[in-house]
Amino acid sequence: MAILGALNPMLTVGLDAASDSAWRLDAYVKRGGYAALKKILAEKTPPEQVTAEVKKSFLRGRGGAGFPTGLKWSFMPKAYAGDKYVVCNSDEGEPGTFKDRDLLLFNPHSVIEGMIIAGYAMGAGCGYNYIHGEVWAVYTRFEEALAEAAAAGLLGKNILGSGFDFQLFAHHGYGAYICGEETALLESIEGKKGQPRYKPPFPASFGLYGKPTTINNTETFAAVPFIINMGGDAYLETGKPNNGGTKLFSVSGHVNKPGNYEVPLGTPFSTLLEMAGGMRGGRQLKACIPGGSSAPVLPGTIMMDCTMDYDSIAKAGSMLGSGAVIVMDETTCMVKALERLSYFYYEESCGQCTPCREGTNWMYRIISRIEHAQGRPDDLDLLTSMTPNIMGRTICALGDAAAMPVQSFVKHFRDEFAYHIENKKCLVPPDVQRAGSGFFKATV
Amino acid sequence: MLDIEIDGKATQVAPGSTIMDAAELVGAYIPHFCYHKKLTIAANCRMCLVQVEKAPKPMPACATPVTNGMKVFTHSQLAVDAQKGVMEFLLINHPLDCPICDQGGECQLQDLAVGYGGSASRFQEAKRVVFQKDVGPLISMQEMTRCIHCTRCVRFGQEVAGVMELGMANRNMHSEIQTFVGRTVDSELSGNMIDLCPVGALTSKPFRYSARSWELSRRKSVSPHDSLGSNLTVQVKLDRVMRVLPRENEEVNECWISDKDRFSYQGLNSPERLQRPMIRVDGALREVEWTVALDYVAHALKDIARTHSGEAIAALGSPHATLEELFLLQKLTHGMGSGSVDFRPRRRDFSADGKRAGTPWLGLKLAEIKDLDAALVVGSFLRKDHPLFAQRLRQLAKGSATQKAGRVSLISVTGDDPLIKLHAHLTVAPADLAAALAGVVKAVAQLKGAGVPAGLENCEISENSQAIAGSLVGGETGEKRRAIFLGNVADQSAQAGALHALAAELARLTGATLGFIGEAANSVGGYVAKALPTALNAYEMFAQPRQAYVLLGVEPELDCHNPQQAVAALKQAALVVMLTPFASDAMKAYADVLLPTAPFSETSGSFVNCEGRLQSFKGVCRPLGDARPAWKVLRVLGNLLDLPGFAYDSSEQIRDEIVPQGTDFVGGLDNGVGGLALATGGERPALQRIAEVPIYSSDPLVRRAPALQQTADAAAPTARICAATLAQLGIADGAAVRVTQGQGTALLTARADASVPPGCVRVAAAHATTAALGEMFGPINVERA
After folding, report:
1. Please, are residues A435 and A331 in contact by the beta-carbon 8 Å criterion?
2. pLDDT at site B479
3. Which among B41, B46, B173 has the least Cβ separation from residue A393?
């Protein structure tokens, strides 16, 4: 189990780390699961009230953008006569992020319950959970969980005798990062090539199969039952103002215990780092990417002053994103790290928009050149003048996601890049890098 | 209406308009590649980024809807920086070798790079290389490295041609436009993708590297092929047609042309072009001077008229001949004392002749098709017979954000997919076509609560007929527009009269418009020119052999309803005079005089398209060899025969005699018919032939266009039979068979084809391998060879 620790947990509360059956329906019900759904259905809570409760909680999208969930739900047309859809985005492809994988693996029913409640709130009768294609076990387990829920009368026609119908289907992708972009995800469900759509129209008016659709992240849906149970105000109090609730953080990199940690929003970064066992080998924190690989990197000194919530990280010049905390110590070569990230974005660009299709590859080739002792004196200026031509010039945010790491790495670690170009070698000696990687015996 | 200000110029646009639409209104140019007014918005090239007041980042003009009070700056620093940024990205992997690119000089990327590109590239890496693809004889994808991924070609296939033959495979900068593994592009509209491609990635295979665009004179012309009358720009170099492009006319061909219109020009320089007059001397054809040939024809015709009578002479024109040519042909024939003149060689049933209220036509304007609520097409190979007419129906069936969809139904003799979202599709044997339409008439009569029309008491109503009837009746809003179109098969069938009468009755019952799509460029014009029989019609003149034949632009063994009968009649005749741009070996076997006439590119003339639009054109180059415009040849013949009224100086003078000067649409158009009883057609033979006219065999010019002849549509005819009928005949799929009609046989391969109705054999007409056969929809015999 890769959920290694928690502080005032909600999503992972009561989860037995050693058990093989903690994910099952009966275990979830024992933990208080489906109480929220039953309450709503029994009390016939008006759908608007459910949405209002979510709004009150200040739950913000856990997929990366941090858009207020209740507000998003309220965009769905209420009087629409045809089908409406609720879609769960479990296409977790951002490097560093692995929280949805564990959430679906160890607590799938919380997502199912959250989606049913969302369907109820928005008047949608059908939902899809789009699961990343490279985590097959998660997909098969979710199918099993769906079967359990259906057998218990929690899914399908006339749920628990309430007259409310909700169908839920699992759908797996094939591992394309771009399918995590919500409209590309819709295209992919429709059986087309996963390419983002131009917005407007937004999914709330023209979504899956052209019908009103709301797409939320897995963790967002999983939080919904807790909001209903404890009330929006109580949920908000768990975190800090404008940043309600707890959040799963995927901590990876040079820490002693990489894994998922659930902490209330607003928890100091230092606390999270401590939970993850501190820096490996007691080395210094050099840099941290706080929100998944597309978030700008922050130097260690700035990071240590941050608390883990949307506003604090944004103030420091980065973003909370999906909550993937990539920790880098002093043995890291920032040029090599950026080369690897740039390769990812170049490879995963869908190829639709010119700036992203051409620019991601160009950026990668320049950075790769620098890393491999072929850098030129004007390369850094070229990078800084080219990246703004990609940012905000594309249909979806992949262009921004590719450009932001480049901009921030060059901004915060310009000397290291310059050293590379001038001296045709790394500032961090190769043997130090190897030692820090953890695959070799530590010598520093 | 919404107020918008673009670069300080204020205008008003309808809600739903984009910034691009508004910019067009005020005359502001916004650079773009992926945007095309006829295609859906992709917003992927990002070239059209503009500054919008209050927007934090530049917005794509093609995809951003106008909001009230919006202020847009297309040339502000922010906008131009964004556009230049995109241009840099477009150019980094694009070869910068315009001087050796076929598109050079007419390339959108080249043009815009002048305005927005840098003078030197900052990209110093090796450029991407994309492998070439072979997608057939028409489109060259030899230089796919030039592709900028605008996906116009992909969207054209999906949205206009109705079939997605090209797609973008792979991700990131390795994205490639390609067909589904190894397939060719077979759409009959595929050539438009070449026009749409803003760079030199998709080029014309027959044209590429044969001329530079600035060497070509651009001349206006009109397509001589189908009844649409597509407007063409013909590009000429040194008196040779090098290329044909669409000339935009929103009311006719929009900005498209079919591949037939585009690539048939290759036939103009065919080795079979007849360049000198020839006459038969002592059994062999010899080249002679024009004066000798014309003297010979005049004397021979006079002789026959004297020794027999004028009625021993018959004249047959092609429906692809010009208005002026057909007019002079009928005038000459009548002048010789014969009433046997016609221009409808593929017609079988002439029972409506003399009963028509006027000239048969489409019944409405082409541009009105989009407003229909329902349309029924009877007897047509829609896509292959009328590619762009079918395209209009495809758009109608699909509808759009601004246009309501209409319900399109089809009654046809094969199950070929028209790539139109059909409301109902009824496939019947040709002999049952009238019965099928009668079923719809009866169903409509019942829905309307009217009595069943006399003669239709016994006909059956199938489920599909009921569905079609429902679409034609629909709600009684009174605003509804419906149309019934009779296609080529309906015209060529032995039941043409019955189908006309039934369709007229259906139109009367439903208030729908009745129309004929028309087979050829001048199918309406022939009626206007009065090239119509007062004695023997196009079928009878061969069924009752004559002494002399004057043939204008037809190849009887390929163009007649019953080629076997036509060739037999020609072989026994004392005189066969052919006015033709081409001479084939088959023609040389029976022709006594071959007079080289000019094809559409070398003569002036007029075509009247299916909607009655009179379109005159001039020659775009000098006639090849000694060829002469047919109207001049007929004029001289008239003079030599001492006939009155042949003193014309120009084709315009002839045209002005036929229709009043300044005519845009001809008068007298009326599809009404009187005195034809409603009938459900005759007996059905044991095995019936279904003869389509393949798209690239339909007239002498396309038959000689090499590239078109290499397409999948030009494959040699086979005997296509449904599996059940094949089993009854004891013939295996793929077996060699002998197909017989009357005295004629053809050796073909049998093919199982589920789209062919039971009891029918689909054997194409208008092809050398089947020219020995008989009637297009006659009885046929198939046996193992």
Report:
1. yes
2. 63
3. B46
Q: What is the pTM of this model?
A: 0.94
> A429 vs chain B: nearest CA distance in angstroms?
28
CB-based contact A392 B58, cutoff 8 Å: yes
CB pairs under 8 A between A and B: 91
Angle at B57 between CA B52 and CA B58, to 5 degrees: 55
- Chain A residues with CB inside 8 Å of B148's CB? 354
pLDDT class for A1, splitting at 50, 70, 90? very low
Burial (Cβ within 10 Å: 0-12, 13-18, ≥19) of residue A152:
middle
Coil vs helix vs strand at B779: strand
Q: What is the mean pLDDT of residues A200-208?
A: 94
Asked if A198 and B41 come within 8 Å (Cβ–Cβ), the reply is yes
Give residue A60's pLDDT.
Answer: 92
Residue B711 sits at the vertex; the CA angle it makes with B707 and B713, to the nearest 5 degrees, is 130
Residues B33-37: what's their mean pLDDT?
96
- Note every long-range contact of A228-231, with CB atoms under 8 Å and residues 24 or more positions apart, other chains counting: A228/A36, A228/A37, A228/A39, A228/A40, A228/A50, A228/A53, A228/A117, A229/A32, A229/A35, A229/A36, A229/A39, A231/A53, A231/A56
The average pLDDT across B210-218 equals 96
Report, as an integer, the average pLDDT of B460-464: 92
Cα-Cα end-to-end distance for chain B: 72
State how far the Cα of B278 lies from the Cα of A91, in Å rounded to an integer.
Answer: 77
What's the rounded Cα separation, in Å, for the pair B114 and B570? 63
The DSSP annotation for B375-413 comes to EEEES--HHHH-HHHHHHHHHHHH--SSS---EEEEEES
User: Residue A12 — very low, low, confident or very high, per pLDDT cuts 50/70/90?
Assistant: confident
Helix (H, G, I), strand (E, B) or coil at B184: coil
Can you read off the two tokens belonging to residue A142? 């979710």
Give dist(CA B378, CA A323) in Å, integer: 63
Choice among B443-447, B474-478, B556-560, B725-729 with the minimum mean pLDDT: B474-478
For residues B331-357, average pLDDT: 96
Tell me the chain B residues in contact with residue A389 when contact means C-beta distances shorter than 8 Å.
Answer: 82, 85-86, 88-89
Lookup result for tokens 């929009």: B254
Residue A331: closest CA among A369, A263, A299, A285: A285
Place of tokens 């082409």: B366
Residue whose C-alpha is closest to residue B779's, from B279, B429, B331: B429
pLDDT in tens, B641-679: 999 999 999 999 999 999 999 999 999 999 999 888 888
Residue B117 reports pLDDT greater than 70: yes
Both structure tokens of B526: 């022939």
Residue A349 and residue B171: Cβ atoms within 8 Å? yes
Cis peptide before A200 (omega within 30 of 0): yes
Chain A residues closer than 8 Å to B85 by CB: 355, 388-389, 393
DSSP A375-398: --TTHHHHHHHHGGGTTT-SSSTH
Per-residue pLDDT tens over the stretch A216-225: 999 999 999 9
Distances (CA, A) of A122 to A35, A79, A113, A335: 19, 10, 14, 47
Average pLDDT rounded to a whole number, residues B712-721: 96
Helices and strands of chain B, counted as H and E runs? 23, 33
Measured between beta carbons, the chain A residues lying within 8 angstroms of B88 are 386, 389
The maximal CA–CA distance of chain B, rounded, in angstroms, is 92
Whole-number Å distance between alpha carbons of A353 and B86: 10
Which chain A residues contact residue B174 at CB under 8 A? Answer: 351
**Residue among A198, A362, A365 whose CB faces B63 most closely:** A198
Burial category of B656 from C-beta neighbours within 10 Å (exposed 0-12, middle 13-18, buried 19 and up): middle
Is there a contact between A354 and B89 if contact means CB atoms under 8 Å apart? yes
Residue A443: predicted pLDDT:
47
Length of chain A as a residue count: 444
